[in-house]
Design goal:
Elements (H helix, E strand, L loop, with lengths): L7 E4 L13 H12 L3 E6 L3 H5 L11 E4 L3 E4 L2 E5 L4 H14 L5
Parallel strand pairs: 1-2, 2-3
Antiparallel strand pairs: 3-4, 4-5
């Protein structure tokens, strides 16, 4: 691997960047070092933005991009995609789940 080329390093939050809901100093140091080498740090978490906000120390990481819950994406400070479900689609999904006894999360 040529480390002189820009790499996009993609990280999960819980259990990867954060250990027991804390940001270990060695993780932050390594990520800042990679950033100083010119690599891009991308957060890819199943948490929502609101869930991310509950862990303020994660903001210490100099993220280049963030992807929340696979549909809420920020890159270099710009929102590039934010998907919401229409009321009609929600009703269709809810009816299907109730009919087929599928749990929603």
């Amino acid at each position: 691997m040529d480390l002189r080329r820009v790499l996009y390093l993609i990280f999960d939050l819980d259990g990867t960047v954060l250990i027991n809901h804390k940001l270990p100093a060695k993780n932050l140091t390594a990520m800042k070092y990679a950033k100083a080498m010119g690599h891009k740090l991308i957060l890819n978490t199943g948490r929502s933005r609101g869930g991310y906000a509950l862990v303020p120390e994660a903001n210490a990481v100099p993220w280049d991009g963030m992807c929340f819950s696979a549909s809420d994406i920020t890159y270099h400070g710009y929102d590039i995609r934010h998907t919401t479900v229409s009321e009609q689609d929600f009703r269709i999904w809810l009816e299907y789940c109730m009919t087929h006894r599928v749990r929603l999360a």
